[in-house]
Structures are given as C-alpha cells and as structure tokens.
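Exercise 7b. Backbone tokens:
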C-alpha cells in the first residue's frame, strides 16, 4: 500500500523543473507576445490588418493550388491509364457493337 506514496515522493525533486518548463516559460512567452501586440496595435492598424490577412489568405491559396494540382494530376493519370487510351496508343482499336 505504501508504493504510490514512495513513487510520488521520488518525483518531488523534479517538480520545480516541470513548473519552470511547462508553466513559467510558456507563460512568459505568452505575456511578451501580448505586450508586443498591445504596443503594436494602436500605432499600426493597417499593417496589422495586412499581416493578418496575409497570414489567413496565403495558406488558403497555397492549399487551393495544391489541391488543384493534385486533382489535375489524378485526372491525367486516369486518362493515360484507361483501357481505351491504352488500346488506341498501341494500335489495337476495339470495335464496340
């Protein structure tokens, strides 16, 4: 019955590192990020709006382009690999009655 307490007590020396790495450092980075935004927002609204639009539109346009390329590649691949196209390419034309 004493095993869970021993195991918990063995982790006590590591808890300050956990606290530093997973609570204090991310919190400090988030606070600095918030301060930068608060200082930047009132002065340069147009630049911030442009940056937000760029961050939203650019990945969307890249994803749309890649989807179009994949779709076109799939269509071309299907056309080249189809039976009638292969038969015509090799000179064997099948007559369908």
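Sequence design result:
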């Amino acid at each position: 019955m004493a095993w869970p307490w021993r195991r918990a007590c063995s982790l006590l020396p590591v808890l300050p590192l956990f606290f530093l790495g997973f609570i204090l450092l991310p919190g400090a980075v988030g606070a600095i990020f918030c301060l930068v935004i608060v200082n930047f927002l009132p002065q340069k609204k147009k630049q911030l709006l442009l940056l937000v639009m760029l961050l939203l539109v650019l990945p969307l346009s890249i994803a749309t382009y890649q989807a179009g390329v994949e779709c076109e590649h799939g269509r071309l691949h299907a056309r080249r690999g189809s039976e009638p196209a292969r038969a015509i390419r090799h000179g064997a034309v099948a007559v369908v009655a």
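Instructor comment: The mean pLDDT is 78. The chain has two domains: 1-43, 45-97.
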